[in-house]
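Per-record layout

source: Pyxidicoccus fallax
name: Cytochrome P450
length: 399
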Amino acid sequence: MSDSYPKPRDLRRPLDPPADYKRLQREAPVCPVKIWDGSTPWLITRHADACEALADPRLCGDFTHPGFPHTSPASKARRARLLPFAFRPEAEYRPQRAMLLHEFTSRKMEAWRPAIQRTVDEAINAMLAGPRPIDLMAAFALPVAIRVICDVLGMPREDAEHLHVLSRTVGSRTAPKEAVERALDALDGFFHRLVATNVRAPGDTLVGRVVAEQVLPGKLSEPDAAAMFQLLFHAGHGPSAYMFGMGVVALLLHPDQLDRFRAMEDPREISAAIQELLRFVTVSHSARQRVALEDVTLGGQHIRAGEGVLVQLSAANRDETVFPEPDRLDLQREPRPNLAMGHGMHLCTGRALALIQLEVVFRTLFRRIPTLRLAVPVEDIPFKQDENILGAHELPVTW
Ligand code: HEM
């Protein structure tokens, strides 16, 4: 009988992936698992197999493929809609992705650093002026991530908090289909209006430039552009916000590491520490979904064309053959490539932006509020169990 997927996390060890993945990594690193709709895609838990799978062009992220392993009803519901490029067949995915990459280079994202610093400082000023304890997610992590992605895309900040609530419904593993459909309708409407406004008068913003360069000359349709910006908003704030929150939890639970982090001055050391936090937490804890276009052999298993594949990044990032003592947070660990932002073709588009934000957030937060601490025992933090991104519903902190 197949193992079921996903496995529940042990809330007593909120930062660790479910222990079952470690068992599978040892005993059956590429094995079929049973998901909510009764289908049995292959689950990959080892780092080497995960890298191989994510880099293999025969395994693709096409949501419309009949064999695609949708890990939730919400994921399946999206199939009936116009999908953003990341979930489309190769031939449509590649050209649309190429339209964006030059906008997200490290150099261009670095130019946003002063604005990100201002946004972080303003949120901390507001926190320090208000009462405590405070919910760090609502008062800091979500607003900062949302404001930054709005600024980078060139979207009005005012609409964004409402859009976030809608995108959480879409990212939920348990939301009823009707709720997901309603949320998708509202999101679609907003992003269509954003594109239409820019078609009439393209702004000097990322959205405006993509509209001027791709939509107006007829290389990208308006609905495709709307789906693209919706993905950028969704992927561009959720993982970052929850990584801010879980990164803070990880550092507060490891005071020796936090002291080390505070003492760091060398930018390379700081960026290695951020990578270790990303590895340790791995907020994208729902498996990356792929379908085999041809027969593929992975980890000694024969995967047939049309079968689904799930790549469990959180398990691969705790693979002891790559990261000695993988369950230890060690900010001075010898750097090894981790998979927190994916690998291969679908590697995170916003990687450079995310790394700058994480650095600014953790450095500034612990410098400006040196006594920051959890306001409740870690067991009382309401960690999310039912969403694709790992995080806390609320994160009560004080200082
Ligand atoms: C800590 C923050 C972040 C984490 C942990 C993260 C993680 C990931 C991961 C794991 C993937 C790979 C998906 C796959 O292989 O199926 C991905 C893809 C993506 N990310 Fe991020 N991400 C973060 C921040 C951002 C930001 C700030 C943006 C801003 C635009 C962004 C935009 C995207 C997009 C558009 C994709 C799809 C890429 C493709 O399929 O080609 N992400 N991200």
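summary: Residues 371 and 399 are 5 Å apart (CA to CA). The longest helix spans residues 222-253.
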